[in-house]
Amino acid sequence: QVQLVESGGGLVQPGGSLRLSCAASGTIRAINIMGWYRQAPGKQRDLVATITNGGRTNFADSVKGRFTISRDNAKNTVYLQMNSLKPEDTAVYYCNLESLRSYWGQGTQVTVSS
Predict the structure, then answer these.
(1) Does the CA dihedral 113-108-57-81 come out positive or negative?
(2) Cα dist. 59→8, 56, 63 in Å?
(3) Is 73 left (phi over 0), alpha (psi -120 to 50) or beta?
(4) Burial of 1 from C-beta contacts in 10 A (0-12 / 13-18 / 19+)
(5) Among residues 14, 13, 48, 19, which one has the least CA distance to residue 34?
(6) Phi, psi values for residue 87, rounded to 5°
(7) Which residues pair with 49 in a beta bridge?
(8) CA–CA distances in Å: residue 51 to residues 9, 59, 97
(9) Per-residue model confidence as pLDDT tens digits over 26-69
(10) Span 14-30, pLDDT tens digits
(11) What number of other Cβ atoms are within 10 A of residue 82's Cβ?
(12) Residue 95: which of 1, 11, 7 has the closest Cα?
């Protein structure tokens, strides 16, 4: 079983920055993809960014140039650095790990508001 624990959400003003972290524990295969998805009220859950164990990244068009994703394979931890935040980035952010099956964290709220 795999568990994902997210941290780092909160309230930030437009133009500000936040860094999310997600630590995975349990039986984790070396080959996997970790990433972040987000879900705003009344909307579906959408991809934000993913990163493979080899470091290949993928971003939603809406966050390219503003968000970066990184990981520490030794710690089974993935990070999402969010800069130049906009009100439309407000959502619950979920950590995901894909490895034979999909695992999800409990979610962390990010609110961008003045």
Answers:
(1) positive
(2) 20, 10, 7
(3) alpha
(4) exposed
(5) 48
(6) -55, -35
(7) 36, 59
(8) 20, 9, 10
(9) 988 888 999 999 999 999 999 999 999 999 999 999 999 999 99
(10) 999 999 999 999 988 88
(11) 26
(12) 7
- The answer to whether residues 73 and 53 touch, using CB atoms and an 8 Å cutoff, is yes
> In the Cβ-directed half-sphere of 27, how many Cα atoms lie within 13 Å?
3
Tokens of 62: 């809406």
**Rg of the chain over all Cα atoms, to the nearest angstrom:** 13
> Strand, coil or helix: what is 87?
helix
Matching residue, tokens 């993928």: 58
What type of residue is 52? Answer: T
